[in-house]
Amino acid sequence: MSKRAVIAGAGLTGLSAAFHLKKAGIEPVTFERNKYPGGLCASLAKNGFIFDFAGHYFHFKNSYAKDLAFGLLGGKLNEIKRKAAVRVGEEQIDYPFQNNFAQLKDKSLVSECEQGLKERKPRENYGSFKEWILGEYGKGIAEHFMLPYNEKLWQHDLDAMLYLGTTSYTPSAKTAQKKDGYNASFFYPSEGGAGEAAKALAALAGEIRYGNRICSVNVSTRSVTVEDNIVFEYGRLISTLPLPELIEMIPAAPVAVKKAAASLRYSSVFALNLGIKRTGISDKHWIYFPDKSLPFYRVGFYSNVAKHLAPEGTTSLYAETAYPGGAVIDREALTARIKAGLIKAGILKQDDIILAELPMNIPCAYVVYDLEYKTHTGLIFDYLCSQGIVSTGRYGGWAYSAMEDALLDGKNAAEDVLDA
Ligand SMILES: Cc1cc2nc3c(=O)[nH]c(=O)nc-3n(C[C@H](O)[C@H](O)[C@H](O)COP(=O)(O)OP(=O)(O)OC[C@H]3O[C@@H](n4cnc5c(N)ncnc54)[C@H](O)[C@@H]3O)c2cc1C
Question: Which structural domain, as residue segments, surrounds residue 164?
């Protein structure tokens, strides 16, 4: 019997790869360290609330991915018109900031933004993400929103980041004048949480071994070792694990490849999910917070996206806080800072009753496009390719991508395996 295709990770990418292989008549086996499918696109229930890993909304640019998602969910995806805001000091204006800064009552900020737009010098190419922000938006919008917000999110010097990759999800000054950016509306399941898509895909993805963490990969025997020293030989390996972790698991990887993998930069996110015994806190789906005196960069309201995510008479929300990739955090202290920040921002009240609290730590959340990004990833992917390993998905492909891309990455990986 020929060796089976092995998939590392049952997030949306791994599940999509397994689903497409199975559809083509191949029986893959997927190893997943969690006891449930979906990775970051899973939903977890607590005390009657359904929580996602912070905001997880579908956006579709590709008709195949859209049809696949609709098919998986039996059409049960609602299109929702975005209601988002930006908090600037004490004021709240509509998102996107660059289209709505005139709503600010502080007219000195408005004229700084207008002046910046007049003086900006857009060009074809920029040396860094910071240059791109200044060139596309001008100084005022940059200083009052784009720079502080992105510094909070990426936890990296924006002048030491490429502008490629981060921009397709950020409306440029030009496009923003015409429309409301890439996420003016979004799709969300009309039953359950964002994880419904992953659950449906898992049911069609063949054998998935849950609670099976892959610990090492032997490229000469073409085998993976799973916890408890179980060795499993593979015909082809599709990995969706974070790239630095995958390389660390391959003892035979050349030193230069290991060094490149250890140099990859990312930010981590701590998402605090709360269920509150109160309604009417906000009518927004989410609010951006560029203010650096508050720990979180975004707060979102699950129960405003879909009522069924929270019991009657309650509100459910998440606060997303980024920290430098891989840093050790004191979760209790950070939780206390986030709650204090939510009170300062007028979202929580001192005497609010918290019915559910579910922190979700995402150690590898945002891939940083630092200035060595292309050199390092090029070296790593050349090596993996030479070993017949397909590394893909948001973290396997080391990219700023979304759930739609995950569905397509999985499909492409399956096709690579079938073509080989
Ligand atoms: C804060 C945040 C908000 C986001 N919001 C959105 C949004 O609104 N819309 C959108 O489209 N996208 C959003 N995304 C992106 C989206 O989460 C990803 O594109 C998608 O979930 C990536 O799927 P994946 O399968 O590639 O990775 P993952 O979901 O990370 O899946 C990888 C899987 O591998 C498993 N694994 C890891 N190590 C091992 C191991 N050693 N052995 C076995 N299994 C292992 C993990 O448990 C996981 O299940 C967001 C991401 C973040 C971080």
Answer: 84-182
Span 155-210, pLDDT tens digits: 999 999 998 655 454 544 454 444 555 578 999 999 999 999 999 999 999 999 99
Whichever domain contains 282, its CATH number is 3.90.660.20
* Boundary of a domain, candidates 347, 367, 387: 367
DSSP assignment letter at 76: -
Task: Please check whether residue 41 is in contact with residue 12, taking contact to mean a CB–CB distance below 8 angstroms.
Answer: yes
The ligand 1 atom nearest the CA atom of 394: 26
Do both 377 and 260 map to the same domain? yes
Asked if residue 63 is part of any domain, the answer here is no
Helices (H), 263-401: 302-305, 331-344, 373-386, 393-396
Region 297-323 average pLDDT? 98
Which of 151, 182, 213 is at the close of a domain? 182
C-alpha span between 245 and 14 (Å, rounded) = 16
Are 90 and 150 in the same domain? Answer: yes
Query: Of ligand 1's atoms, which has the minimum distance to the CA of residue 14?
Result: 25
Same domain, residue pair 253 and 380: yes
Of 56, 183, 245, 318, the residue with max ligand 1 atoms within 8 A of its CB, to mutate for a pocket test, comes to 56
Report which protein residue has its CA nearest ligand 1's atom 34: 9
- The dihedral through the CA atoms of 280, 281, 282, 285 has a sign that is negative
Ligand 1 mean position, distance from CA 64 (Å)? 20
Domain assignment present for 140 = yes
* pTM for this prediction: 0.95
Give the integer Cα–Cα distance in Å for 304 and 285: 6
Residues 393, 396, 398, 403, Cα dihedral to 10°? 20
Q: Are residues 363 and 271 in the same domain?
A: yes
Q: Is 97 helix (H, G, I), strand (E, B) or coil?
A: helix
Helix (H, G, I), strand (E, B) or coil at 107: helix
The ligand 1 site (C-beta within 6 Å) comprises 8-14, 31-34, 39-41, 54-58, 213-214, 240-241, 269, 320, 362, 365, 393-395, 401-404, 406
